[in-house]
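so ive been stuck on this for like two days lol. basically i have the seq below and the ligand is magnesium ion, smiles is in there too. i just want the complex predicted, nothing fancy, no docking runs or whatever. if the output looks off dont worry ill sanity check it later, just need somthing to start from for the group meeting slides
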Amino acid sequence: MSETNFASAEDKMFARVEAGMKRRRAAEKRFQWYGRCAVALGLTFLVVLFVSIVSNGYTAFWQTRVTLDVTLDASVIDPQGSRDPEVLRAADYGGLIKATLRDMFPDVTGRRDRFALYGLISNGAAFDLRDRVLANPQLIGTTVSLSVAADDDVDMLMKGHIDRDGAEADRRIKDNQLGWIDQLQADGRLERVFNLDFFANGDSRDPELAGIRGALMGSVFTLVVTLALSFPLAVAAAVYLEEFAPKNRWTDLIEVNINNLAAVPSIVFGLLGLAVFINFFTLPRSAPLVGGLVLTLMTLPTIIIASRASLKSVPPSIREGALGVGASPMQAVMYHVLPLAMPGMLTGTIIGMAQALGETAPLLMIGMVAFIADVPNGVFDPSTVLPVQIYLWADSPERAYVEKTSAAILVLLLFLATMNAVAVLLRRRFERRW
Amino acid sequence: MEAQASHLMASGGPSHRAVGADLGGGTYDRAHRGTVGEIRVEVPRMRCTKVNVHYGDKHAIHDVSLDVGKNEVLAMIGPSGCGKSTFLRCLNRMNDTVASCRVTGEILLDGKDIMAPEVDVVPLRARVGMVFQKPNPLTFPKSIFENVAFGPRIHGLVQTRAELEEVVVTSLQKANLWEEVKDRLNDPGTGLSGGQQQRLCIARAIAIQPEVILMDEPCSALDPISTAKIEQLIDELRRQFSICIVTHSMQQAARVSQRTAYFHLGDLIEVGDTDQIFVKPQHQLTEDYITGRFG
Ligand SMILES: Nc1ncnc2c1ncn2[C@@H]1O[C@H](COP(=O)(O)OP(=O)(O)O)[C@@H](O)[C@H]1O
Ligand SMILES: [Mg+2]
């Protein structure tokens, strides 16, 4: 009698649990689906971003070049036959190129037509020729085969960015130019090669000559300065605050201020840099040194906060173990706590550096937005940085800068990925010792 | 569960005399707070007088006076939170690392006050070593060898590599660990079993030739076999060092120690020879604790 009662009571319980289970399982499923949707949405955006950047940018890694047979007329280059480098440098190589073009298209007469003809070749051609002659003066008097960059409009036409069937008035390449280009192509004088110029040159007003190297080196120098200053400073500050500083009103105040600094808009640091480093200390404008100083101010709080968190997470038993055998507090921190906190500190550093790499606003304030054609050779040379270069190119009207902008973004992302990879490797090294 | 509750009630009632009478204890009732038993020994290694510890406003240790004898194992027992660890950590000024902690009173090591502000804690901790509850092999340097070598090295106890190796080997031998690790001295200390790690920590402590070794529940994270090995080790180490051990196992206290101190809510309630404490406690609280009425 009592047993049947028990059984039915148990059944009832079971039924109730079972009914609840259905709801719980459904809720769990739903929750998982929310998560999956969120991940999928994030991935979609990422894919769209990458596809659009890559599809816009990959053509920038190719370049149209024209092969010219240039006769190096001694009477033009070196009339006295002195072979003096100064004379060679000053010679009219542009004229030689133009003469070559006139020889190739003898029917082109009229001033305007000739101008249009010369316009097919990049302004950089004359410099290429000059460098070639300076490197090898024996070439004077012979005919050399020279591969020169085509003008950016020709390049755009070859890459299909200019519609040759559109109305002539809307085209940057006119009908007569189209004819010459077709002829060059028929003669096998047009070729598509890997765009070395893009990686070898600094910025330029001529899109076909503009390269990323200046901005890339500027970013490298700026980040080296930032890293060299912010990492040791931040680690030292974090170790002191976390391990040694007394806990009182002053250190509380400092802590609050560091947290607040991390939230200050970056352009404010730019203004500060302008006022302090450039106007007061009269450091050079547009220099990676000043950029690095400003970005150090910006990244310091980020790294300090991350470093303190990672020091806090080192178990106290580690400190006690070291102190218990008589290590001084500094020895305990240096040999035992710091190595264990290092992976976390590196993570914080890489986040800070990634922020610094992508930062534009504060650098605008200190003049790193200027047009600078030379590749910087050190932290004092004027230069720009990758994100600013992207901004500058995106702002330029020529069609050819569109692909350059996307290509520069790709370089920036690659730079970031490399930095992250290095950080991951370093972190592994430290984690393995754990 | 119920039985225990009624026991507690009974011990609060008039019948507790009868219960206490089983062991012949209970001479001092629960309200008595002065330390019962002989706190001094003939040849003390450490001598504490009127030690008080505060954590901020919390008074964690009240007026504790106690000797640690030469070549003896002193066990400290008591319910958790009674201040055993706190008192132990006074003996090598480990409490200095706790910001809110304030220690007053006099603690002598070989007749010299270690509480004096001019005393440097670094050499002090070389003389009064410590082994913790959770085995904590140093992780950096990480190898078994480096773990033991760390202390002698930072204190400059050895001049040559050969001397260092000698110290490491003898310390590992004394800690009964040598046979188990001699083929893998360069492996990380964290790869050892819990019991081996704890013996490694003991080897690390004895490598710097301390006079006193403090152990805070060294076996509470270990299995019975490892515990037995460590207890045997403690007995061997007694010949060379003074040892203070905090334990929550009364059997362990009974097995390894010569003297036992019973703490209760920050008071040192009773001290005496281990045999006497466990067979014939004089204080009602001690008796309650060792007969399992609370703890
Ligand atoms: N770091 C600390 N800060 C504040 N109070 C503490 C700290 N450590 C211990 N206490 C307090 O001191 C008392 C004694 O603690 P402890 O010595 O750890 O006890 P036991 O080791 O006997 O279990 C407890 O009430 C505990 O809450
Ligand atoms: Mg404790």
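DSSP finds 18 helices and three strands in chain A. The longest helix of chain A spans residues 2-57.
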